[in-house]
Amino acid sequence: MRTVLILGAGFGGLELATRLSGSPAGDLRVVVIDRNDSFTFGFAKLDILFRDTPPEAVRVPYTRFAHPHVEFRQEEVTAIDPRTRRVRTDRAVHDPDVLVVALGADYDPGATPGFVEDGYEYYSIDGARRLRERLAGFDGGSVLVAVLSVPFKCPPAPYEGTMLLHEQLDRRGVRDRTEIRFVSPMESPIPVSPDTSAAIVEALARRGIEYSSGLRVQALDPSRHVATTRDGELSYDLFIGIPKHRVPAVVEASGLTDGGTDGWVAVDPHTLRTPYPGVYALGDCADAPVPRAGVFAEDAARTVAAGIEAELRGAVPSERYRGRGTCHIEFGDGLVGKVEADFLSGPAPEAPFSPPSAELAREKAAAAEARLRRWFTG
Ligand SMILES: Cc1cc2nc3c(=O)[nH]c(=O)nc-3n(C[C@H](O)[C@H](O)[C@H](O)COP(=O)(O)OP(=O)(O)OC[C@H]3O[C@@H](n4cnc5c(N)ncnc54)[C@H](O)[C@@H]3O)c2cc1C
């Protein structure tokens, strides 16, 4: 019996465990560890923020994660030794034959001075809940939305949040007395897809949202409610930031980030193997040449599952990571667009855009439901 240990039961970990549970590689035992007792889709934070959805309603308990040969353990990973593949948690020591690190990305709000004191975010469940309360009492003024650092999860999500904010303020009758400005250090919203970028920029303009690209907010001054940029100060009544992302501290301490870009886990982009035998990394924590998004973590899980099965059979893995993913983008008014990105399977990345429609809104909901049916029971 050989053991595959998956650290993290998020988008990537759930997909990998599900695939391995149906593995033809006979005597395989899969153990999945997560500190949480439940899974929540990233985009559910938009429902918590704008649709009054209680966080409990979007949580899927891991008790429903039941597959043959797969064991879920709620434990906190405290140390990883990639040389020996030994993993320590708050409850046990694990010595697997194959180790997969899928621990996602953490936030580092303290990296932007003043942000913790005077800013709001909706990238965490607590942050979305806090911002929802602040918005309930917001009666107009200037809102500054800023991407504070790159990379960050789900490149369209800051724009989705801003368009849904416009919609909410409009519905409440406060949009007329609110200015919304969006600032990003990136040159365009979705660089791989000029059509998607153009559609987003045009949608912001149509909603009267001022958009500044290539501009980074460096710090906030909480006493004056101003944000500092290279080009001067921007004042705000409400600051909403997409916090700087970082690899989880336990991953950084493991040495797996040595050789990775900007502190992310170094992997072979075609196989998602790390330089350590029998150790893979996938999803947001990995330094693969794709954006941080669940759909790419899912595609990476497909490659890693094939790689592990080949490794355990003593065969050469035939599958190469394609870096494919379909991202649905909320534009407000119940309309959703999509971009179908393929970063690695052709000679150059491709990412055609489909304009927003009610049909794509239904497709987004169906895609989420299909994942839940695949990963969970009941
Ligand atoms: C507002 C928002 C909207 C988004 N919309 C989309 C979208 O529409 N489509 C899309 O594809 N992506 C979207 N995303 C991004 C998506 O949520 C992430 O990219 C995706 O979840 C990454 O998958 P992962 O498996 O790498 O990490 P995660 O899903 O984050 O999973 C990592 C897991 O590791 C666990 N963990 C971390 N540290 C420890 C530890 N020390 N011990 C034990 N467990 C630990 C965590 O609890 C977590 O369950 C969105 C994100 C946000 C914030």
Q: What helical percentage do the residues reach?
A: 25-40%
Tell me the number of strands: 23
Largest sheet: 5 strands, parallel
Going by helix content, strand content and strand pairing, the class is alpha/beta
| Number of H- or I-type helical stretches | 10
What order do the helices and strands come in, and which of them pair?
Layout: E1 2-7, H1 11-21, E2 28-34, E3 38-39, H2 44-50, H3 55-58, E4 60-61, E5 70-74, E6 77-81, E7 86-89, E8 93-94, E9 98-101, E10 106-107, H4 115-118, E11 119-120, H5 125-136, E12 141-147, H6 157-172, E13 178-183, H7 194-206, E14 209-212, E15 217-221, E16 226-229, E17 232-235, E18 238-242, E19 245-246, H8 249-253, E20 279-281, H9 294-313, E21 324-332, E22 335-342, E23 353-357, H10 358-375
This protein binds flavin-adenine dinucleotide.
What does this protein structure show overall?
- The protein has 378 residues and is α/β, with parallel strands linked by helices.
- It has 10 helices and 23 strands.
- It has helices at 11-21, 44-50, 55-58, 115-118, 125-136, 157-172, 194-206, 249-253, 294-313, 358-375; strands at 2-7, 28-34, 38-39, 60-61, 70-74, 77-81, 86-89, 93-94, 98-101, 106-107, 119-120, 141-147, 178-183, 209-212, 217-221, 226-229, 232-235, 238-242, 245-246, 279-281, 324-332, 335-342, 353-357.
- Strands 5-2-1-9-20 form a 5-stranded parallel β-sheet, with helices on one face. A 5-stranded parallel β-sheet has the order 11-18-12-13-14.
- α1 packs parallel to α9 and α2 runs parallel beside α5.
- The two termini are 29 Å apart.
- The model has no long low-confidence stretch (mean pLDDT 97).
- The chain binds flavin-adenine dinucleotide (FAD).
- The site of flavin-adenine dinucleotide (FAD) has 34 residues, from α1, β2, α2, α9 and β21.
